[in-house]
Structures are given as C-alpha cells and as structure tokens.
Design a protein that fits this description.
Length: 186
C-alpha cells in the first residue's frame, strides 16, 4: 500500500487540541445548567475564556485549512459520502466559530462581561437587549446540541474509516501512525 498523504503536523495538533477543548466545553456547559452557587460561577469562569480560545483556534484552523490543501478522500468512497464528509466539515467549522460568537453576543446582549483570565474583559459586540439575550441563549443551547450530534457523527465516521474500511482516512489526521504495524484485513 502506498504511503497515506497526511495533514501537516500543525493541522493535526490543532485538530486534537481543539477536540479536547470542545469536548471539555460541551461537558462544562452541561454541568453549568445543573449547578448553582459557587460551582456554577467556577464553571462560567472557565467556560467563557475557553470559548474565546476555541474561537481563536478555529479561525487559525480555518485559515490554515485554506492555505494547506487537505488530503483527498479515497476514490473507493462513493461520491455522495464524499459530499457528506465535506458538508460535515463545513458544519463543524461553522459551529466552532458560530458557537463562541453567539455566546459572546448573548452575553453582550445580557450586559454580562466576557472576562478572560487575569480579569481582562472583552468589549461587548451587541448592545444590551434582554429580548435578544433570551433568543441568543436558546440558540446557543440548540447549537450546542447540534455540535454534540455533529461531533458524534464525525467520530463515528472516523471510527468507520479507521476500524472497518481501513482506507487511510483515519491516518490522515492521526498524530502517530506506523504503517509497518498495520494489520491487513484478511
């Protein structure tokens, strides 16, 4: 089997760093809605700056993706599945950038500061508006569910490629992969 073209190391590191950050963020969000008092505030104090970090890294990833061509999908993958794969990446990038922006906008509309570490507060991006705050809060929640579902689909597809199809797609994003240790199916 010829060598599998891979994403550059920088892209792979960003991918896995952001995967960990986004999963952490989703679980913090879940725990936030079930917490009260000091526990809630500690989670909020992590959630807000982590969301902004995800936003910045997502923009860097998107710029990197435009500058570096992604390895092509295998010819054995039917065209409809290739289109679904491309569409799912568009959805992921949209959510990785949209979720933090909507969160920032929501907090701005609610007249809440987006405080980073060391007490640095970001400027509001919308004027104070309680009705808009309520709308954006609901939208932020629904988009979190959509992000979680999209991540599950992405993970399922990655596992399908890595464990069942063994078509090299998993290896394009793997941090470490030794083709000499690959077991042939058969």
């Amino acid at each position: 089997m010829p060598p599998v073209p891979r994403f550059p190391l920088f892209a792979r590191l960003l991918h896995w760093l952001m995967a960990a950050m986004i999963l952490t963020m989703l679980f913090i969000g879940i725990f936030m809605v079930t917490s009260v008092g000091p526990a809630y505030q500690r989670l909020v104090d992590i959630h807000r700056p982590l969301g902004i970090c995800i936003l910045l890294l997502a923009v860097i990833r998107l710029l990197n993706r435009f500058m570096m061509r992604a390895p092509s999908l295998p010819d054995t993958l039917p065209l409809p599945l290739q289109r679904i794969a491309h569409a799912s990446h568009i959805v992921l990038y949209t959510l990785m950038i949209g979720m933090p922006l909507i969160g920032w906008a929501m907090l701005s509309a609610g007249d809440y500061p987006v405080t980073m570490w060391n007490g640095i507060a970001l400027p509001p991006i919308l004027p104070h508006d309680p009705v808009l705050f309520a709308f954006l809060r609901g939208l932020h929640t629904w988009l979190a569910f959509a992000l979680f579902a999209t991540i599950l689909a992405h993970l399922s597809a990655a596992l399908l490629h890595g464990l069942i199809l063994r078509d090299g797609v998993w290896q394009t994003m793997a941090l470490r992969w030794n083709p000499a240790k690959r077991r042939d199916a058969g």
